[in-house]
């Protein structure tokens, strides 16, 4: 699955990082503790987090994550959007909660 498939299939809003839409997604990871994400997320995971500060972009870039998904329509900081655009890290926004996001990925065949 590609990041752009997430946008199309799940109707997520692209907040930043349009240039990252062709990244491959191999898994899904959900955590808000940044140090834990750094030690447990895998390359090409789509990452769900309620964090919206600039450090999420640094972690996504460091780990080569596919994209960041911000649930429950949480507003993303402007500095974060700018940095994500610079780093080509796609950030999505959705009204869905974490459970519903995981359900969408499962229904799309990600196991």
UniProtKB/TrEMBL annotation:
Species, as recorded: Paramaledivibacter caminithermalis (strain DSM 15212 / CIP 107654 / DViRD3)
Signal peptide segment: none
A Pfam family it matches: DRTGG
InterPro entries linked: DRTGG (IPR010766), Ser_kin/Pase_Hpr-like_N_sf (IPR028979)
Residue span, DRTGG domain: 6-103
The name this protein goes by in its record: DRTGG domain-containing protein
């Amino acid at each position: 699955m590609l990041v752009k498939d997430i946008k199309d299939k799940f109707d997520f809003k692209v907040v930043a990082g349009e240039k990252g839409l062709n990244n491959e997604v191999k898994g899904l990871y959900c955590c808000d503790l940044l140090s834990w994400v750094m030690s447990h997320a895998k390359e090409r995971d789509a990452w769900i987090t309620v964090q919206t500060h600039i450090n999420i972009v640094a972690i996504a870039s460091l780990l080569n994550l596919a994209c960041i998904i911000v649930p429950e329509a949480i507003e993303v900081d402007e500095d974060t959007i700018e940095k994500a655009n610079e780093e080509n890290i796609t950030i999505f926004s959705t009204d869905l909660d974490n459970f519903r996001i995981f359900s969408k990925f499962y229904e799309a065949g990600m196991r």
